[in-house]
Amino acid sequence: MTHREVNFDGLIGPTHNYAGLSIGNLASSTNQGLISNPRAAALQGLAKMRAVHALGIPQGFLPPLQRPDLGVLRRLGFAGSDRQCLDKAARDAPDLLANIYSASSMWTANAATIAPSPDTPDGKVHFLPANLAKHFHRAIEAPATASALRHIFNDPSVFVHHPALPGGVHFGDEGAANHGRFCNDHWGRATHLFVYGKDGARFPARQRLCASEAVARAFSLTADRAVFLQQSTAALDAGAFHNDVVSVVNNNVLFTHEQAFEDQPAALTRLRAAVPDLQIIEAPASVVSLDDAISTYLFNSQLLTVAGDSMALILPAESQENDRVRTFLEYVEAGDNPISQIIYQDVRESMRNGGGPACLRLRVVLSDAERAAMNPHFLLDDEKFTALEEWVSTHYRDRLHPDDFADPALLEECFAALDALTTLLHMGAFYGFQH
After folding, report:
1. Contact of 46 with 295, CB cutoff 8 Å
2. For residues 18 and 28, what is the distance between their CA atoms, to the nearest angstrom?
């Protein structure tokens, strides 16, 4: 049976903004209050999807969540029509508006953790949506994300959907951003890497060990198929709020910074024991500092198998603009390792909020039969790319400031855009406001 990786990117929504809601995310904090460009953000995201598709890798998408989320306002006691709810919140609790307008579901690496069918006892693909409990604006995503995943992967004979973990911050789970799957090929049985954090001196950790262990239990992963490593507190305090900011996994390759894991020599020894043919490409701190790695999102890159054992690395343009990082990448590309292509991609609008190429995608390994069983409207081809680009150009603003959230015209524009999207891609009544 043939299994292939499909990348499901978050289609960036019309409320992409710089409200600075994410503690520990340096880019988010630094750019708080600046004017964003939702149109450019969405087009940059689609261009990256096109680049992956051009490599011969199947590309899908997760739609934007309904924003603003007026259901949250109503659960918090605001009543009346949509406009009345918005007006009352703007007057009485204006800080809520940034949360209910947040477009952070664009970073689908946080949508869920996934176990492909070769790894599960029942031979089905398992999804467990992240609770994202650390931040309010992200925690409210979990129910809608779970619903979207069930809508896309909708055949119960093939797909299993677990509920998000309970317990709030105690079981804080941030999804695939702290998870990797080592394998020789996608149809073989794999070893899963779960990376958790402990609070640093500067920033709190988001992924808890007990959450990672619970996810592994939900997937019925045996002890020899799950490795739990602690992210280094040095990386956390430097601004690596997720492990995918300092390392990335593809097949049997780990591309990582020297300071990604706590007691890294011991951590890599454990990994080598669990993954005998592991290949490690490590950036020494003396060559690329943590600050360089985090400011350029060198490791928040997409490492993709393109032909045979050859791999391509899709990086943000910021990596090319840093001399030390670019020199290191040239060394990697010329070296004796599977990475044969370095591709720089402009995702600056996302980067200014702290999300690089890897943040924007969720990796889902599917067999041919499993792909045939999913909702086909969420897989992209050239025609759909063009249609989505035209949709963005028609419906998205090119300037958005957090002060605009109080404008009822923005609400109406957003719902009109999402309504047009569902018609364009035959998604049905996907959003709550359509019912």
Report:
1. no
2. 7
Which of 85, 359, 370, 377 is the catalytic position?
A: 359
Q: Give the pair of three-digit tokens for residue 38.
A: 């939702």
Residue 398: the pLDDT is 97
Closest CA to 202 of 19, 23, 22: 23
* 210 noted as active-site residue: no
Beta partners for residue 126, in sequence order: 115, 160
Catalytic residue list contains 85: no
Structure tokens belonging to residue 58:
């199947």
Q: In what order do the strands lie in the sheet with 226-230?
A: 179-182, 191-196, 226-230
Buried b (16+ CB within 10 A) or exposed e, 333-370: eeeeebbeebbbbbbebbbbbbbbbbbbbbbbbbbeeb
Would you state the pLDDT for residue 1? Answer: 55
- 86: its two tokens: 């918005």
How far apart are alpha carbons 133 and 141 in whole angstroms?
10
Instruction: Write the CB contacts of 372 (distance below 8 Å, at least 6 apart in sequence).
Output: none
pLDDT the model gives residue 31: 80
Per residue in 184-213, is it b (16+ CB within 10 Å) or e — as a string?
A: eebbeebbbbbbbbeebeebebbbbbebbb
Alpha helix ranges (H) inside 4-157 = 26-30, 38-54, 70-75, 82-92, 95-100, 136-139, 142-152
Element (H, E) at 17: none
Residues 105, 97: contact at Cβ < 8 Å? no
Query: Which position among 85, 126, 174, 370 bears the catalytic label?
Result: 174
Q: What is the pLDDT of residue 187?
A: 76
Asked whether 196 and 207 are in contact (CB, 8 A), the reply is yes
Which pLDDT score, from 0 to 100, does residue 168 have?
Answer: 85
Q: Which regions in the chain score pLDDT beneath 70?
A: 1
By CB atoms closer than 10 A (0-12, 13-18, 19+), residue 8 is buried
pTM: 0.96
Using one digit for the tens of pLDDT, what is the confidence trace for 199-254? Answer: 999 999 999 999 999 999 999 999 999 999 999 999 999 999 999 999 999 999 99
247 DSSP β-pair partners: 256
Query: What is the Cα–Cα distance from 428 to 327, expressed in whole angstroms?
Result: 48
Catalytically annotated residue among 242, 257, 377, 395: 242
**Cβ-contact 33, 20 below 8 angstroms:** yes
Contact 378, 8 (CB under 8 A): yes
- Evaluate whether 176 touches 112 at the Cβ level (below 8 Å): yes
Residue 242 annotated in active site: yes
User: What is the SS3 string spanning 249-286?
Assistant: EECCEEEEECCCECCHHHHHHHHHHHCCCCEEEEECCC
